[in-house]
Model the fold of this input.
Amino acid sequence: MAKNLNKDTVYRAAKPKDKDYTINDGECLALLVKTNGSKLWRFIYRFGGKQNRLGFGSYPETSLESARRKAEAAREQIANGIDPSATRKQEKADNQQAVEAQIRLDAGLPLINSFEYVNRAQYLDERWRMMQAWADYLDVLKSGAQVIQFPRQA
Done:
């Protein structure tokens, strides 16, 4: 398959048409030109028998050289048996979890699944059950039921 077919001027000169179209750069990298004028880098690949797409950003914010470097990194991952899309999703989830952890720390709350978090949850759950049991006992007393009195020991 041909590699690096086009120069930057080809992508810069691409104009929107009445339908979306792609300009192929070779080795699975293409520029998708949408009808609204946006230009998006796409890496189309097969992994596990399924065709997948990976976006590398919009043109010209993501340059041709940058898109080619990202495509080369994705090809290396595929060669090593790693799905680049799954890797990106995992990185995104890790970043989101780190942001949420920082928000919790800034608010003075314990990290999720930390020792303090789990113990605090267990403590509050036990406390709630005790309060419910006490409220049930008070309801019984209010309803006029007699309390069992045990004989005094002499």
